[in-house]
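Second opinion, please. Pick holes in both lines of this record:
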Amino acid sequence: MTTSAEAEGRQRVFLVVVDDSEEMEVALRFACLRAKNTGGRVALLYVQEPAEFHHWLGVGELIQQERREEAEARLSDLSARAQEISGSIPILLVREGKRGEELLKLLDEDPSISIVVLAASTDSEGPGPIISYMMKQGSGRMRVPLTIVPGSLSVEQVEQLT
């Protein structure tokens, strides 16, 4: 007989990298619907850039605390939406560093992640910084599929695809 912990360990985990772009919302919806339709789970990765203000230690610590509070607020909002769409509570991850580097480190460290879901930028300057990084630096190191969805998809189009 399989325990719920064993079954959960085999769930497909769809990882979404959180940023402030509009297309991230498309990736979130796609990942949530795929998780819901396949019995999987969503994970949200928020990477905060390290504070660059080192002149006064106290000011740097204050900046870091404010960034942490922003990350928690953003993840709280996205977590509620992810739970509403997918039907399950997402895994929340917060790291400090460069997004691409931290994503690759997380994939090396966490075997439960099954798929990374990103949405391509809708502007003409390229697919976006994280996708560009992953194609240049991470493609040889990826151990899971990278799903890139068009950032311009409507809610209806995402629902049709999933």
Remarks:
- The helical segments are 4-9, 22-38, 57-86, 99-109, 129-138, 155-161.
- The domain at 9-161 is CATH 3.40.50.620 (Rossmann fold).
- Residues 1-8 have pLDDT under 50 and may be disordered.
